[in-house]
Write a structure and sequence with these properties.
The protein is α+β, with helices and mostly antiparallel strands. 63% of the residues lie in helices and 7% in strands. The relative contact order is 0.06.
Amino acid sequence: MPRGTSRSARVPRRLDELRSFARSSPSSSLEARAASLANADILGALPRPLRLGGEAPEPPDLAQRSPERFRTTPFRVFRRLLRFAPVAISFLAAQVWDRVRGRSSPLRTGRRLRARIEKLGGTFVKLGQQLSLRHDLLRSDTCFELGRLLDDMPAMPSDIAVREIENATGRSMRDLFRVFDPDPIGSASLACVYQAELRSGERVAVKVRRPGVGDDVAADLRIISSMLRMAELMTVIRPGTSDTLREGLRTMLFEELDFRVEARFQEILRRRAKEDGLRFLYVPKVYPELSCARLLVSELLTGGIWLIDLLGAIESDRPEHLHFAREAFGIKPKKVAKRLLRIRHWSLFENLFFHADPHPGNVMVLPKNRLAFVDFGACAPATRRTRTHQVEMFRRQARGDVEGMVQVFHSMFSPLPRVDIDALTARSEAATFEWMYGFETEHVEWFERTSASLWLSMFAAIREFDIPVSLETIRTLRSSLLYDTITARLSPDANMLEEFRRYERRARRQALRRFIANLDEKLSIGWWLLEIERQSAVVGRLWYRLSRYADAPLHRFLSTAGKMAETTATLLRATLVALVYSTIVVGVVSLTNQSSGGSLDIRDAMSLTAQSPWFVAGLLIILVRTYRAVQFRLADVDT
């Protein structure tokens, strides 16, 4: 058609084409063909998006990393119980005999318990080490004895270790290593550590979990949990007392069994130490492509002295060893002590987590007083609550504010159960004053100048008042005790408080530089609202204290009324249980007599039941348990 043809002239011709198409095309495609012809002037090919071709990929699995499941069969539990029961019975018998002879003491208990656990070996050693942290449940002498448990087990056969490595990685030993030493450099209850050389030439430490140890741990935890529940049921201990112990043991042991958790902590700490400029802190490199839940491959530490050996040289007065450490590696114990405290403050107040078990056997002193940490199976998050408590404790100690230190102490273990607040405060203040006297005196033993003596006194108060302690608090105090005691052993004249002040001044300068560098961000309205919210929380807590003191008489009345109501409810429940129990036993006696052809009415059945010693024993159990429950409730003091 000529380019100058008008639209009104083109429309009749298009209609003629559609009519001729309708006469020659099937009716099924008539509409589609008509629409195609009607838009023929705008239809045309355009470039297509580039495709690589091939089959569409499977959607990714976005499920979170699930914890490893350990299988505990009744047979395994029974087998572990056969091994555990005789040792436990002999321990209890010896304890009773000591009490009869008047020779019982926490130190004897700790030594006997440590000997029994070392005899059992295996995962019981690890359980004992975890119990050594629970100063809130056991006497300090007992905990210190359990802390001396030697986790030194016979090495697993090398062929089993090789099999575990190949199964975990899916590769042969020849593909992984150039040299693998079958003689382990460490053999503990949960794993063995070997040294090897990768195909690329790096020397590594290979940590291999013992096969089946996870199932043994699960079985042992079930046995211990059942025993604690039975003790609560029989009111040997107060119901609910063992909840935190059982949960804490389960959490800590299963975390140590999963090497993926340890590798994650190790990677993060290595990167953050470099980013924050802690050049004197060294963390071995992890090889994640070779590691999994039951295998951990990391850089092998060499060229230094283990901190436990350095402490041994100091405390056994071996000047030749100290001279060698100073001349060969440039190691100065006082410098090492200060850097340990610097690492403690940085990890607790700035890092995501802190090392909850800085044992001297887990730290190597490298040349020029650099510190290398290993074994990250016991790390804990540094929450805002933990940081606040630790900072406030240091600051109030610096001001000599004993009352403020006690308030922080109460806050650390809040919410407090039904305890006598006045008695607890008096006990805490007395312990704090005694510790402050030792801290301010120059000529005292080194341990009196650490926080260890203070926290041990506080733990004694916790045991006396039956205050539950969270796993987070246990880990925090465990870390503080170890850092302080190691520092004092390295340098008895070290001033922990002065080191904290030095750290705080350095942290303030760094914070000021960050504030100036990000002034616009720091002055945003959201930041100020957050600060107002924090200050309002302080005012809210102060108002709560005032209102509580104002309502104290009414509170005590309501508490007394609550005790009476709960005691009455407990007695009614016990009466109902006794009636149901008696009815069941009388019914069983009647049916038994009738099935044997006898004739026994209900009165005779009741008389015969009352004469049964087993029936009387059952009623006594119900009576004793009810009495103990009422006794526990009435012993609660108004808060």
